[in-house]
Design a protein that fits this description.
By secondary structure, this protein is of the alpha/beta class. Among the domains are: about 110 residues, Alpha-Beta Complex (Spore Coat Polysaccharide Biosynthesis Protein SpsA, Chain A); about 90 residues, no CATH class. It is built from 13 helices and nine strands. It has a five-stranded mixed β-sheet. About 45% of the residues are buried.
């Protein structure tokens, strides 16, 4: 059943799981199965999938799941804008639960994910609560394995605690997030002018309103990384471009991990140019490039030995370099064209 608004019903769920979705035939079934096997009672959950008019088998997968699992309320709502923040807002408007759990069609939450989120919220640990990603390959090829390893390494993602954190703590952002519906009434919906980084911007407003963003490593979900370098580059270009737009609005929120990639890309452009007039610039460019390559190779070698996967030795350096260069270049480009 496709609907933009909930049908009148005496039944009200305690939790609304909202999911933005577009052409996710490969993973949407995994997500729905993971939600179905939650320890939190089915009778208290509704799942709202905001679909951006998928043209693959996504909608058929959802329809098949609805028929085979009638004891879990699953609904599709239309998202004609085909953007993530618009999808989230469509789902929020249709949601009836007092607690919102935002998930992703590329994810599979652990069986106690919803229960732990609800417990943390009701204990007052945070206004927006999230956990740690267990990053899995988005395919079976060597590129997918390398991307998953790189996306969980500090050299690839800096101090993003939700990638590898082990201590419960207050943080600046969490992936996805779970919160009371009243929080949206207080700070507003997701910003639809940002096509990416909508979660981070939402959490900026949470913190500005005096709220807490809480990371609990016992709240865990599997996240399926991109399957190849081309899709990884497109993903991180999008991240970098829209991060620059978000930071122009909230410049005080910039973190060192966000400043380094554009600074590195700028140095790769500036030093060769200045080397025309200055031999020192040429030396600096050579030294910087060699040190960067050496660090990446060491990380790749360590990951390859640790996981006994020799394809990671060249693969992880290539993945991390793709992330840094795509993110940094897009960030700079966003500043130039804005």
């Amino acid at each position: 059943m496709i609907a933009d608004q909930p049908e009148p019903s005496a039944w009200k769920p305690r939790v609304s799981v909202i999911v933005p979705c577009y052409n996710e035939e490969a993973t949407i079934q995994l997500l729905l199965e993971a939600i179905y096997h939650q320890t939190f009672p089915h009778q208290e959950i509704e799942v709202i999938i905001a679909d951006g008019q998928s043209n693959d088998q996504t909608r058929q997968r959802v329809s098949d799941f609805q028929r085979s699992h009638p004891d879990l309320a699953v609904r599709l709502v239309e998202n004609p804008q085909r953007t993530i923040p618009a999808a989230l807002n469509r789902a929020l408007r249709a949601a009836q639960g007092g607690i919102i759990v935002r998930l992703d069609a590329h994810s599979a939450p652990r069986s106690d994910y919803i229960a732990r989120c609800v417990a943390a919220i009701e204990a007052g640990l945070g206004d927006n609560v999230g956990g740690v990603w267990e990053i899995h390959p988005g395919g079976s090829n060597w590129q997918a394995r390398a991307i998953a390893a790189a996306a969980a390494h500090p050299l690839g993602v800096g101090d993003a605690r939700y990638r590898y954190g082990e201590t419960a703590q207050i943080v600046d952002t969490v992936p996805f997030g779970a919160y009371r519906r009243s929080l949206v009434d207080k700070i507003g919906l997701y910003d639809e002018s940002l096509l990416t980084n909508e979660d981070y911007e939402f959490n900026v407003r949470v913190r500005r309103a005096g709220g807490k963003v809480w990371l609990d490593p016992s709240i865990r979900s599997v996240y399926f990384a991109r399957p190849n370098f081309r899709q990884l580059a497109r993903q991180y270009w999008r991240y970098g471009f829209w991060k620059a737009r978000m930071l122009r609005r909230y410049p005080e929120t910039i973190r060192w991990r966000q400043a380094l990639p554009p600074a590195f890309v700028l140095s790769l452009i500036a030093l060769p140019l200045f080397s025309i007039w200055s031999p020192l610039a040429a030396w600096l460019f050579m030294i910087e490039s060699m040190i960067y390559a050496l660090f990446l190779l060491l990380v790749g070698f360590h990951m390859g030995v640790k996981k006994r996967d020799w394809a990671l030795i060249p693969g992880v350096p290539l993945a991390i370099a793709t992330m840094h260069l795509a993110w940094g270049s897009a960030f700079l480009w966003s500043l130039l064209v804005s």
